[in-house]
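Record pair follows.
FIRST:
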Amino acid sequence: MAAIEDDATTGAPPSPTPILAFFDVDNTLMRGASVYHLGWAAWKRGYVTWRDIARFTWKQMRFIAVGENHRHQLAVRDRALELIEGHTIDELESLAIETYEKRIEKLLLPETVGLAQDHLDKGHEVWLITATPEACARVIAERLGLTGAIGTRIRDVDGVFTGELHGHVMHGTEKALAAKDLAVAKHARLEDCWAYSDSRNDIPLLELAGNRVVVNPDAALKRYARARNWPMITAGAASIRAQRRRVRREARAVARDAR
């Protein structure tokens, strides 16, 4: 998408504290489920079987058609844990890089990536927050020049994964808790922060931020957002352009000494 010039600027002075923008990944920053593509790369390396890939494919098609649900998230979590058990941190990082370069990069939604860049241009920190393994989310953040990523963490012993979670799946209320913890640690004001997601499961995260935007929402989130007059955008539509103008016009910039 071509750059869009500002048509106005916020009258608020630059913020003396950091401002964080949280972006969900699956069906928000990219089309589909990132862990599915991680599974394909794992199959090519012989980590999983063809039957596993068939299940991943079915889940991917359903996810694109109707959005995620809790049972889907649990199934993906369990398979991801099985997939990585016995492998090393270095192997997962290598797998995540390969997955990004061969599959995820092509599925990124340029309009949403542009929104993330608009926040960076304001001096905001941009954090991915997702249920996918943190190593995969971190690669996406690094390649896009974002601030960082919060994802599901897997326990390891001496650099080898045990197949057990370190904490909880980064999903639902866990996202909101992690986002709040990060905001507190950075002394950011939640009313100045932003959150973007497509899923009803992220309502706690969206309600946490002072500025929430739903992107390609599932049916339940669409109803919830409409009832509350939340901004709603669809990738590729004029609503994206309007939201980018809104960020450039209304979002507070961050003072340089606060970055």
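SECOND:
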Amino acid sequence: MFSLRNFDLNLLLAFDVLMQERNVTRAAERMFITQSAMSHTLHRLRQQLDDPLLIKTPSGMQPTDRALALVTPVRSLLLEMERLLEPPQAFDPATSQRRFTIAATDYMEFLLLPDLSRLIEQVAPGIDIHVKRTEPAFPLTQLENGSLDVVLGFSSVLEPPAQLNCEHLFVDLMACVVREDHPSIRHAPSLAEYLAAAHMLISRTGSQVGVIDEKLAELGLERRINLIVPHFLSAPLIVAETDMILSLPYRLAAQFRKLVALKILPVPLDLPSYDLAMIWHPLREKDPAHCWLREQIKAIGRSIDATAIEL
């Protein structure tokens, strides 16, 4: 019984050339091998297919019925293999109907999505973007199966598995905001003034402990959190109407300041900077459409990173 695993598929290319030329010397020249090597290849083909394939006649070498029956299917198979092995076509955003799914925090949505949406509307109107909220558990399975294209967020919080690709986008620092006419906090607060203030906390999970509280705990200190909200959307409006102080990443505070009258001030604590990153699976590394999306996000990240943090 014939088994494909015992057949050298490289012989099919030689068979196709031999059937076109019906001459061992000319076939050897086309395949850039010696005549003796092509003769050896023909001998192997005869063994593998159990048929003489080409027979010498007074008018030259003529194919057997078995060889003639194989000519068209072998040519079709080789053409299909060439098609399969061709590099992927260049991605055309102007005509693409692709849908991308992104997992992002509210913070990343606020900073990246306006620019990304405007760009797509201008140069890729057929592309759809679906943004999902990041969950506590890292979505490795979704990145693997392709239901999720990229994850955007703080790399230290996401802690992506080592096998994934991770690209730096921009850096941010913790700051705090108060209303422009706050009665007691007019300049950068001292630690004592900061702790004496009423605080607001944005916590998606409802936790009463953030990075600032962890730092304060290391110093044996704590602050009073008067209000916890799960989303960024209401935060600037609340701060603008109260005497509360809100601590949050500087770049988000700068956006809030465009909406309402707020002052951005430094947090009186030694806090690390935050690295914002894009994470994707290596399975999508060479996909032209995926490469295009990542390049757009990286370009927006570079633009954000170029904006100075002024504290």
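COMMENT: The longest helix spans residues 65-85.
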